[in-house]
Amino acid sequence: MKHIPLNELRENMYFDAPVFLDEGYILLSPDVQAAPELLQRLERWGYEGVYCEGAPVEAPAYLSGATAAAVKSMLELDIKEKEQMQKARNLYFPLVEFVMESFKRFQQINRLDLAEITERVKQVIEMVKSSRDSILRLPEFVFVNENYLYQHSVNCTILALAIGDLLKLPPHRQIELGIGTLLHDIGMLKLPEYLYLSSKALQPKEWQMIKAHPMLGYRLLKGFSLSDSIALTSWEHHERLSGSGYPRGLAGDKITLYSRIVAVADSYDAITSKRVYKPLQEGHAGLLELLKGRRTLYEESAVKALIYCLSLFPLGSLVLLSDSAIGRVIRTNPRSARAPIVQILIDKEGNRLSELAVVQTAEREGGSEPFVKRQLFWKEVEAHNLV
Length: 387
Description:
Layout: E1 2-5, E2 14-15, E3 19-21, E4 25-28, H1 36-45, E5 49-52, E6 56-57, H2 65-70, H3 74-109, H4 114-135, H5 149-166, H6 171-182, H7 193-197, H8 204-210, H9 213-223, H10 228-236, H11 257-272, H12 283-292, H13 300-310, E7 318-321, E8 326-331, E9 341-346, E10 358-360, E11 372-375, H14 378-383
Antiparallel strand pairs: 1-5, 2-6, 3-4, 3-5, 4-10, 7-8, 7-11, 8-9, 9-10
Helix pairs in contact: 3-4, 3-5, 4-5, 4-6, 5-6, 5-11, 5-13, 6-10, 9-10, 10-11, 11-12
């Protein structure tokens, strides 16, 4: 790939091949001009030039539609990213509000609007199918509330439905899985809040009360005439393949498939979410913990599906690249869970970028593209003001 010095670039020129920033960052497609603003930004960022396998041309008229469509411009990508994320936010936050209102109404008058719950689940299923990489950027969706159950129920539902979609569950079973997941912790609502919201260590009797919430949830859901396949999701989501879970110590295939999927989603969100009684772990660490327990604690196909959906460095997480740049994971790479697509927030020189710059990371050291070294710790995120 040829290096083209910045002083050789002219305003509004075209190239007959994609143009890259630092070899790995897509900058321009052949159908987009080098705008004056772009050249000014490159100079401001301190870059000496760009990389391209082609050459400057006067106009892109000879380019085929296939070539122009193959590589999107930075502006097009920026617009698409913003549209997809706004679509995800428009679903996510109203859904958390709906769950909060539904749970509070259930506590007050023992009512659930199952028809509306079903419709909300269908919306999540559609979003997972159409914009999975956006709706799974869970670290970017911050809902401040002292009761974690609302956001936890929504996060688990999104994760479980992403797994179910990848496992090719038919539509009616995805709906059942979604309803069961959204309500899997409903038994908690019959317990005193101090038991699950307290920062203090639980006494043995208090822990026994917490361990009763799956059974309570099952009875509540059966009381609303939900099928066993849905209600058992509540009863069994803390069971483990080895038989070491609770409340009944079920093992292997005696645990329903829905419950095995929810166990993976529930555990991942619990590990990677901040609670009053524990600090959060980074998503990468959470996935590694699930990987260690595959086949012994967790359904292997569900763990693999979750990693495929999130990548080993989960969507929405902040990562340090091998060239010292810092970015946010915005897309998965179907060919490699270790090499996600990353939006650069702070470049390798330490400059904060306000414009969209995207890099396809490498799977390992040795390629021309940077690779992900690790996920940033929460303190580092706060230090860089990237919250």
